[in-house]
């Protein structure tokens, strides 16, 4: 989905609020929220792709104003409700207040047919796919051409794995793009590498 | 005349605080026999005490003093960190180690969420997860690095790595020349998390 989470290349943001040795956590509830979602994954209540997608499905205003660990927690709570582990009413009664959850999921998809295998040095183009459900292709590479620089072992296909759809595992390819190709005349010169699933790619001439 | 603005009682209900939401799910899972409190204790210990930047610092220091290890690390990062007893979660199936040189600066990010090789380089800091870094570092890398205190010479090539799959990345910073010949333990102490993300040089 072309959601609010897909931030790469969005303009208008201010300086990074950088601090040397910034901590990962600020409060006990953040540590527990982080541990609880990881524990739920370990228990098999949901997988990492379902977890990420439930964050992406947060209503955009909620997504942008929530802290990182509020997003984790919202995903955990949404998935526990959707999977029937705990009813929303019970959570809100226990929490003594309203709990905003993510919006419902659209259908997933399985692997693209006739996927090609690429090798290092191949020129590839990112397919111009528009996917209503979960997808790990950042919008800034859609339709763009780059060069494969490395290959990873096969992973569950996120577009299927986040939706309980059957699919084959796929390798990912680290694809090198030139920032000038991604944002012509509108970026700092750099080589930008993105880990791209096989289904998102086609051979470029 | 009175106007009934709030016909839906939920409009008036206040939002639960974050600690209340955490308590709610933890107690609900506990009551169902799922042992969430024990799970939280174990995973919190790992997050706070075991998955720390010092793991990555040990990897970097070893790579600096042992050329054969460095070669193995660059060829297969996951196998090489395992040699040092550093774990990676099952779903991180591959660790790609990116070597900085005087003319190449690698920097990692995750524009879609905030993925890192957290068992190796530690859980990510606030700024790495913030909207600003995620939106800007892929498009305005040199400007962002400069704002963060890393003013690179024009001849330094910037290579950004967006962690969009479950392959993980870490930066192998260049060894400061004045530390050549130091003992391994002393080298471990100078390696920072931010140098392994690639927003700082040592
Ligand atoms: Fe991420």
TrEMBL record, chain A:
Documented EC number(s): 4.2.1.84
Domain Nitrile hydratase beta subunit, chain residue ranges per copy: 111-202
Keywords assigned: Lyase
Residue stretches making up the Nitrile hydratase beta subunit-like N-terminal domain: 1-98
GO MF annotations in UniProt: nitrile hydratase activity
Top EC group: lyase
Catalysed reaction, written as an equation: an aliphatic primary amide = an aliphatic nitrile + H2O
SUPFAM superfamilies, sorted: Electron transport accessory proteins
Sequence similarity: Belongs to the nitrile hydratase subunit beta family.
NCBIfam families noted in UniProt: nitrile_beta
Role description: NHase catalyzes the hydration of various nitrile compounds to the corresponding amides.
Annotated protein name in UniProt: Nitrile hydratase subunit beta
Name of the coding gene: nthB
UniProtKB/TrEMBL annotation, chain B:
Higher taxonomy: Bacteria, Pseudomonadati, Pseudomonadota, Betaproteobacteria, Burkholderiales
Protein name (record): Nitrile hydratase subunit alpha
SUPFAM superfamilies: Nitrile hydratase alpha chain
Pfam families: NHase_alpha
Extent of the signal sequence: none
Source species of the chain: Variovorax humicola
UniProt KW keywords: Metal-binding
Domain Nitrile hydratase alpha/Thiocyanate hydrolase gamma: residue ranges: 19-200
Entries under InterPro entries matching the protein: CN_Hdrase_a/SCN_Hdrase_g_sf (IPR036648), CN_Hdrtase_a/SCN_Hdrlase_g (IPR004232)
Alphabetical list of Gene3D superfamilies matching this protein: Nitrile hydratase alpha /Thiocyanate hydrolase gamma
């Amino acid at each position: 989905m072309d959601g609010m989470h897909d931030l790469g290349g969005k303009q208008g943001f201010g300086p990074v609020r950088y601090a040397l040795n910034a901590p990962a956590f600020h409060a006990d509830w953040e540590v527990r929220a982080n541990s609880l979602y990881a524990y739920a994954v370990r228990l098999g209540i949901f997988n990492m792709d379902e977890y990420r997608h439930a964050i992406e499905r947060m209503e955009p205003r909620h997504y942008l104003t929530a802290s990182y660990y509020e997003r984790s927690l919202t995903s955990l709570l949404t998935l526990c409700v959707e999977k029937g582990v705990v009813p929303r009413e019970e959570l809100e009664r226990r929490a003594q207040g309203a709990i905003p959850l993510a919006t419902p999921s659209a259908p997933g998809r399985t692997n693209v047919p006739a996927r090609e295998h690429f090798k290092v040095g191949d020129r590839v183009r990112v397919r111009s796919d528009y996917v209503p459900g979960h997808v790990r292709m950042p919008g800034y590479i859609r339709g763009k051409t780059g060069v494969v620089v490395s290959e990873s072992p096969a992973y569950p296909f996120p577009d299927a794995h986040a939706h309980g759809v059957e699919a084959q595992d796929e390798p990912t390819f680290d694809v090198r793009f030139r920032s000038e190709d991604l944002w012509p005349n509108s970026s700092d010169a750099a080589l930008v590498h993105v880990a791209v699933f096989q289904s998102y790619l086609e051979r470029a001439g | 005349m009175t106007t009934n603005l709030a016909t839906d009682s939920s409009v008036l209900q206040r939002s639960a605080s974050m600690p209340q939401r955490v308590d709610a799910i933890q107690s609900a899972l506990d009551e169902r026999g799922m042992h969430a409190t024990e799970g939280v204790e174990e995973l919190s210990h790992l997050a706070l005490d075991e998955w720390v930047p010092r793991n990555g610092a040990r990897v970097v220091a070893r790579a600096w003093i042992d050329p054969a290890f460095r070669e193995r690390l660059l060829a297969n990062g996951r196998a090489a960190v395992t040699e040092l007893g550093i774990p990676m979660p099952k779903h991180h199936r591959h660790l790609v180690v990116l070597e900085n040189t005087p003319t190449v600066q690698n920097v990692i990010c995750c524009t879609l969420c905030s993925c890192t090789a957290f068992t190796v380089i530690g859980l990510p800091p606030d700024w790495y997860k913030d909207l600003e870094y995620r939106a800007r570092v892929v498009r305005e890398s040199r400007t962002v690095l400069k704002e963060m205190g890393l003013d690179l010479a024009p001849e330094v090539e910037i290579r950004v790595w967006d962690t969009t799959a479950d392959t993980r990345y870490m930066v192998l910073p260049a060894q400061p020349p004045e530390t050549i010949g130091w003992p391994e333990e002393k080298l471990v102490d100078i390696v920072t998390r931010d140098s392994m993300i690639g927003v700082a040089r040592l």
